[in-house]
Amino acid sequence: MQKWPKKRTQYPLIALVFFVFIVFSILYNESNIQEIHSKHTLPRTPPVPLDKSSACQSTVKYSGKRAEWDSFKPEITGRREMPETCDYFSGEWVFDNSSYPLYKDSDCPYMSDQLACHKHGRQDLDYQYWRWQPHHCNLKRWNVTEMWEKLRGKRLMFVGDSLNRGQWISMVCLLQSVIPAEKKFMTPQAHLSIFRAEEYNASIEFLWAPLLVESNSDDPVDHRLPERILRPDSLLRHSSEWMHADILVFNSYLWWRQGPVKLLWSSEEKGVCEEIDGLGGMELAMEAWAKWVDSNVDRVKKVFFVTMSPTHFTKQEWEPGSEGNCYDEKLPIKNGTYWGIDSDFPTMQMVERILAKLGSKVNVLNITQLSEYRKDGHPSIYRKFWETLTPEKLADPASYSDCIHWCLPGVPDVWNELLFQFL
Q: Subcellular localization, per the record (predicted)?
């Protein structure tokens, strides 16, 4: 009987074809998904960094746009302005020529010519001898060794404008004398300057960031520009430097007092800027900074915010009926309720609102009113001026007085004594 051969099944071949089809479909769909994802989530091109050559192609009114980070939740523990029960920021200036100054300007090799008032001709030295005395308690007495121990193995970084640079120089001058010459180093690196004490493995640093966020004024020297342009949604240029510090001391105020600023958002491709008043611009920058603090500061890192440093451009404010400014002023203001017009209350309220959201993540050095009393503490004409002064100005000293910055030794040393108190 003839046997017919069994018919070979087609199932293995069909299964193989089906398997190849499934694999191809998965790979194809994955490729499409990745392409769609990249189109919608990755920036087309990174924004061009801002510098002194940056310009707006056109300018429109501020649209009300906010960065994504302005909705973070307040911390319920409340803001930590004073770790102890005493209000160290309420008090009076007491003349004390036995304990002060805490150093001599001539003994500090890192002193700035902008702040070295005695070197540049100021003969009345009483401004160096005033001690801040809180009403109901005493500040801890300054101790260089104890401060270095607090900084051992740490980076203390001041971030902000020239007023914060003055506080940094003050801190360096307060601390440098006990470090042997061969074990201390000063390294100016573009917008970041570093004083390092080798035996403590510690550094005291200053980062130039006058507007906190990225701007066209981030060059520490060449920043006198006709208009300020900033990216209110970008602070990576600065935060990439400050994020590695252990103790951060921020300030921001003065640069927002010079008229409107221009906003150039990172997503804007055609160079269209929005114009906003200084207070509004500062609020956007403070929101960006506060979001960074909220997201990045842990329990180990300490963050301080220094409130506005007052100016003394109008003598009539503390001496009604008179003319002039801080030039030739030799005594502090004794009126405990004095406030100058340049200490802007709307700005203070805005800063207070934002700091309140951060709760205990930020410590506030409230130096505004205690510095208000020190109309005598500014360089006035006793500093190095980088521009050539005209004969007309030289004939009228008050016309070129610096009533913004502070002589050293002087007021910023007290700001650092307060910092020492709270560390």
A: Membrane
DSSP 360-417: GG-EEE--HHHHHT-TT-S-BT-S--SSPPPHHHHTSGGGG-B-SS--SSSHHHHHHH
pTM of the complete model? 0.86
Q: How far is CA 150 from the centre of its chain?
A: 22
Kindly state the average pLDDT of the residues 410-417. 98
> For residues 94 and 291, what is the distance between their CA atoms, to the nearest angstrom?
40
Contacts of 15 (CB under 8 A, 6+ apart): none
Candidate from 50-54, 61-65, 222-226, 275-279 with smallest mean pLDDT = 222-226
Known catalytic membership, residue 402: yes
Q: How many residues does the chain have?
A: 423
In the annotation, is 378 catalytic? no
Q: Which residues make Cβ contacts (< 8 Å) with residue 380, sequence separation at least 6? A: 117, 122, 325, 326, 327, 328, 329, 397, 401, 402, 403
**13-72 pLDDT per residue, tens:** 555 555 555 545 545 554 554 444 444 444 456 788 999 999 999 999 999 988 765 445
Whether 6 is in a domain gets the answer no
Residue 193 is among the residues annotated as catalytic for this protein = no
Range of the domain at 349: 61-68+86-422
**From 218, 233, 294, 402, active-site residue:** 402
CATH of the domain at 278: 3.40.50.1110
Tell me, yes or no, whether 178 lies in a domain: yes
- Triad 134, 206, 144: Cα angle to 5°: 50
How confident is residue 223, by pLDDT bands cut at 50, 70 and 90? confident
Give the active site residue among 112, 162, 203, 371: 162
For the chain, what is the radius of gyration of the CA atoms? 29
Q: How many domains does the chain have?
A: 1
3-state SS, residue 357: helix
State the burial class of residue 363 (Cβ atoms within 10 Å of its Cβ: 0-12, 13-18, 19+).
buried
Q: Is the peptide bond before 12 cis (omega within 30 degrees of 0)?
A: no
Angle ∠(281,306,175) on CA atoms, nearest 5? 135
- pLDDT bracket for residue 190 (50, 70, 90): confident
In a domain, 13, yes or no: no
Q: Which one from 309, 342, 405, 413 is the annotated catalytic residue?
A: 405
Question: What's the mean pLDDT in 358-366?
Answer: 95
